[in-house]
Give the backbone structure.
Amino acid sequence: ETGVTQTPRHLVMGMTNKKSLKCEQHLGHNAMYWYKQSAKKPLELMFVYNFKEQTENNSVPSRFSPECPNSSHLFLHLHTLQPEDSALYLCASSQVRGTEAFFGQGTRLTVV
Amino acid sequence: AQKITQTQPGMFVQEKEAVTLDCTYDTSDPSYGLFWYKQPSSGEMIFLIYQGSYDQQNATEGRYSLNFQKARKSANLVISASQLGDSAMYFCAMREQDMRFGAGTRLTVKP
């Protein structure tokens, strides 16, 4: 298996649920990212991990909690989300200060 | 602070013709990278082309070329010989420390 893989591809959850998004990369990269893509808005960088250390948190609400147990895996833990959190969540990886980032296919999240 | 601007929300092009998608950026860092990604309706972001701030020549990848004008801080994407499969959202991005994206341009190729 190669590239960046995200699971699940689609997720519907209630506002009181707890769920996790998973991202796995097989590219040997040392940086991983979570982006949020809402309708009619640019991609928003949420979290950055370089060498498993979180280096950026772009004022993301605490109901989103990232976890990076190793350089190949990245999770986004979700709890008590709001309907406005419904979006496409994209994971990406790259070399730290490298060139292009490679993206997974995204998880389309719907909060009901 | 980084800022990437794509002024064309939507563009139409006739099949087999060339099209230019605009991108301007703002940065005070002399070292940065510029990228274009394609996002079909399926959602995945597909890397197309990269231009480094110190690169002297414009980047080319097959039918894609990047018109890099450093003094004007523009990095327009040129797609030659458009195909129906080129219909998608196109995003310009810039990396200083992290990669940030413009709002995107929806390209529609007409048969």
Remarks:
- The mean pLDDT of chain B is 94.
- The first strand of chain B starts at residue 3 and ends at 5.
